[in-house]
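User: Hi! I'm working on a homework problem where we have to compare a predicted structure to a textbook description. Could you give me the structure for the chain below?
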Amino acid sequence: MTQAHFKQSPTCEHCALSRNCTENAEQIGYKNNIPVLTHKIYHRGDKLFCAGDAFNALYIMRSGSAKACISSVNAEEQIVEFCFPGDLIGADGFAQRKHAQTITFLETSSVCYISLNSVNALLASSELGRQQLLSNMSKSLLVQQQQTMSFHCMTSSQRLAAFLLDLSARLAERGLSSHQLTLSMTRIDIANYLGMAIETISRLLTNMQQQGLIEVQRRQVTLLDIPQLQLMSNVESANDSGLLISQNSALLHATAHSTHAMLQ
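Assistant: Happy to help. Predicted structure tokens:
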């Protein structure tokens, strides 16, 4: 499906590169005879790509959700990120021209596919495209860095509170309710991501519900007291934290270097 048949979805407004694929497709794609965008539907358990696969495209989550995993030397799976509509996927392949992560879908989902040829054309033709790509890559790297820091600096309850608040913020960015969360991932996935036992996750969720902070009904979680959860997580926002701003600047520099290398 080329750009001519692509229909904009509600999530396109929050996508890393949507303005380019929907507004500049004629001058970028048609002029260079390069399909700018296609999209495909996947089902729960399907894999977008696996660690070791050749890096030949970037992807943008259009609907649904997925988990990004890496494997240890003992073949143990570690979830490093959850992906939601608008998120860029596949940038892990820039370094060695092959993917370091495995992407598995958590529910019926669709992704937009942008070949490396199209990415190169986009980056060469659009300053906005370059900035959006770098910004999205930086955010992804920062999330993973914050996850690593949380393992060393946060208690279990702080990690879980921060996780729920992060999901809340990502929903709010997309114009959705920041209080009503539908967890597409299992409790086991959450425990893996946060570096905790499944029993600890269940106990903490029960404690938070008893304290009136949240309400849990199967995979539906309602945040009843976001200010108190923020106090519990003890996490400063990126706007207020000089440390996170400096880290973000460093990550932008690193991603800019990677993108420049790709274009050589």
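For your comparison, note the following. Residues 3-126 form a domain with the Jelly Rolls fold (CATH 2.60.120.10). The longest helix spans residues 127-153. Good luck with the assignment!
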